[in-house]
Amino acid sequence: MAAMQMPIMMLLIFGVFWLLIIRPQAKKQKEHQEMLNKLGKGAVVITRGGIIGTITGVQPGEIVVLEIQEKVRVRVPRAYIENTWSAKSDDKDKDDKDKGESKAA
Question: Which listed CATH number (2.30.29, 3.90.1200, 2.30.30, 2.40.128) goes with 40-105?
């Protein structure tokens, strides 16, 4: 009887592991890949290094050209783009800074 419980417990542990770790990570990776595939000219993005820029072109080999300031462009691998950036998140950061400064005063 004890010999039968061991494989059942291992399967149960693997099932929990899959539900809590593997499945959500795979879903997140799939969503990120879909977001990268939808990117095009004019999209404002943030890279893994924290650089915010506007996509001005896509070069062969999955290279994206970002304009980070007027007439300042950098080439970044598409995979290094973390997410899209919106003005709302920029305004929220400014509000958070203002609140922090008023609390400190």
Answer: 2.30.30
